[in-house]
């Protein structure tokens, strides 16, 4: 069962588990359109990485990312800064999962997961955050150890 597990696959699994966990944490706070967008990008990235590899131009992904950031800028108002930022970071995380990933891309995925977790604390102050923080600390350490063997 575990014969085909390589460091590359473990790093990918770690990135996807962390991403879906971050999404699960902020799911109730996300706008519906961004929630659907993330899930679509997540599953397309999962299909791309594990089942049938195909390439998507980084230029196209970068233009989409800039579009998401511009949409966030249009949504920000003095009373609501965090919500559009969390929506946008979640969409950018989904885009990052579509790219062909190298070491720096995995580090960016970990950073976006950290930003989503940090944004969640601004939207909902709860003791549940401590549980998320402990889980994320182990997840991040595991990911960095795997990345040291990656590539």
Tally of helical runs: 6
Mean pLDDT across all residues, rounded?
88
Number of strands: 0
Terminal residue distance: 23 Å
**Largest pleated sheet:** none
Could you name the key traits of this structure?
globular; 6 helices; mainly alpha; transmembrane; 151 residues; single chain
Molecular structure report:
With 151 residues, the protein is mainly alpha-helical. It has one domain. 77% of the residues lie in helices and 0% in strands. The chain has helices at 7-26, 32-50, 58-75, 82-98, 103-123, 128-149. α1 (7-26) runs parallel beside α5 (103-123). It starts with 6 loop residues before the first helix and ends with a helix. The model has no long low-confidence stretch (mean pLDDT 88).
Gist?
Pfam families: TgpA_N (PF11992). The protein is mainly α. It is 77% helix and 0% strand.
List strands and helices in order, with pairings.
Layout (H helix, E strand, L loop, with lengths): L6 H20 L5 H19 L7 H18 L6 H17 L4 H21 L4 H22 L2
